[in-house]
Amino acid sequence: MPIPHISRAPRKRGRPARGTPASREIVLGAALAHFSQTGFDGTGLRDIAATAGVDAALISHKFGSKLDLWKAVVDEIANRLAEAQKDIMRLHDDTAPIEQRVREGLSCFIAANCKIPELAKFLSDEMSQPGARQDYVMLRIWQPYQAAMLPLLNDAKADGLLGESTPELTLRMLMGAIMLPLMMIRRSGDLPLSEISSLKERLVKTVLPMFIEAT
């Protein structure tokens, strides 16, 4: 289900009506929205509860501490990115030219990120602050993405497409070049599928030539 945003009107407090989606998804969406806007320290469980339309006690019962809830948010992000990472890994043994495979890999990653508008800001904040939360983000989100993309960039390096840059440095620069525009795009809700496709193509067309030398 789409991740709710802070700007949406909160639902009434109390137990969700029978037959409605489980409150877990609603709480995780509200938590991601708050964490991405006000950071971990600036977010309280009561803030998240108000946006989700549930009691703070329910959040504590379902998730435990604020840190436990934050980890559940990261795990949910990782789960939503997993399919894109699988698609990227399928390109490892593809016989298409390496430049095309790198382009398709970036397309998969960008499309997945476009579907989670809060993700760029959330990752930017958490990956800039050393500590246990940064370590958790690196483990659950960055390392799987790195494992998917590095083999493609290693092949690109072997074919002379990276110039003097290393695959590891290229990947970090690619991440920054993708996440910054996404972070700066302000949206009140998830992008329509038609706009996701358009934005994905524009980003790939703009970002790829910055790091991959044309053959």
From TrEMBL:
InterPro entries: Homeodomain-like_sf, HTH-type_TetR-like_transc_reg, HTH_TetR, Tet_transcr_reg_TetR-rel_C_sf. Gene3D superfamilies: Tetracycline Repressor, domain 2. Residues 21-81 form the HTH tetR-type domain. The keyword Transcription applies. Residues 1-20 are annotated as: Disordered. Residues 67-94 form a coiled coil. One of its GO terms (molecular function) is transcription cis-regulatory region binding. Residues 44-63 bind DNA. It holds the Pfam family TetR_N. Keywords: Coiled coil, DNA-binding, Transcription, Transcription regulation. The keyword Coiled coil applies. This is TetR/AcrR family transcriptional regulator. It comes from Acetobacter garciniae.
